Model the fold of this input.
Amino acid sequence: MSATATQPLQAALPTGRPRWYWPALIGGAIVVIATVRVLTGANDIDSSGALAAAIGLAMPLALAGLGGLWSERSGVVNIGLEGMMILGTWGAAFFGFHYGPWAGILGAVMMGVLGGAVHALATVIFGVDHIVSGVAVNLLGLGAGSYLAVRTFSGLPGGGPTQSPPLDQLPFLSIPGLGDALLQLEQSRTWLVADLAGILRAVTTNVNVLTVISVGLLVLTWWLLWRTPFGLRLRSCGEAPQAAETLGVNVLRYKFLAVLVSGGLAGLAGGFLVLVASNLYREGQTGGRGYIGLAAMIFGNWRPGGLAAGAMLFGYADAIQLRGRGDVIHAYLLPIGLLLLGWAIWQYIRHRHGQPILGLWRIALALGVLAWYALTDEVPAEFTNMTPYIATLLVLAFSAQRLRMPAADGQVYRKGEGH
Done:
């Protein structure tokens, strides 16, 4: 396709955010968190330990969500990410045990691609409903993973029908000379300086090589889909496939390829759980993370930057509850209460002639959260365990109105409809 031919597609696709959006958002978040840490004394709120745990928990979600993004940007809904992740866990364990951890990465990707091929064949070639096919892939992945584990890991030293033998670890990377210096700055508790030191230490000390690869895949996806003609054509298949076909795009080929890539990334997400998070395969290891990755993709508005932010949010909330830090959750009641109060007052001013009672209820809710913070020192452990789910609900409540899925996402496409 020529450059002039891509111009109608480029004009039809929605534009992105301004370049300053993400730096401003991240910088503002760091300032707010640093201020909350100083005001509340909850020093673990952005410690290097908490952030390192959050990154480790976020990476499988980000990879699964990235797989969903590739598929849905081409117009194919993929709720089969969970099944592809399960296939990836077995592939990583089998090839990692027999041929080493680097082969485990390839094994995870190949098994995920196999699951993606099943989904692509059903949806793109045979026109099966995307949701039905995704459910079938999840069931297939669950059954195949259990069967293959029984056949391949039973009788091995340390292995069994529900788990693999221990695997060799992938290497961890650190920038020499930074860890100790950053730790000293972090322990100084200085406003903003200690917070930046904790963040830098988390991303420069003992970082697994697969984490680095995963971040590179996020950046590569952004560049491919939003900065190349290939990406423009692929996204056009999810927005207006009939128009893309009239301009010479092989829509079926792009959709099929996108779903294969989607499966490979989901398989790699499963491989991360095996090769990094636990160093062995266990049945039920994914724990629904394929669905959470899909939620992170939706929260991120089908974009890599938003997806990464959503995965990090869910990973951070999970890390805090796993560390049992009720004081950190309590500290967050202060900014949440103030945010709710500001939002409630703004909504009340805008709609005071429409639904004043609703506005008063919002203000009462915000004041209730602030009272909870002022009258307690720590939230109950039961509430701490609910943190990831509550964070998800709050974020979706504030972001639901800006979400925009690809226009033709989930629609069955048949070749020739554009003529």
Remarks:
- The CA atoms of residues 14 and 381 lie 44 Å apart.
- The chain has 18 helices and two strands.
- The first helix runs from residue 3 to 12.
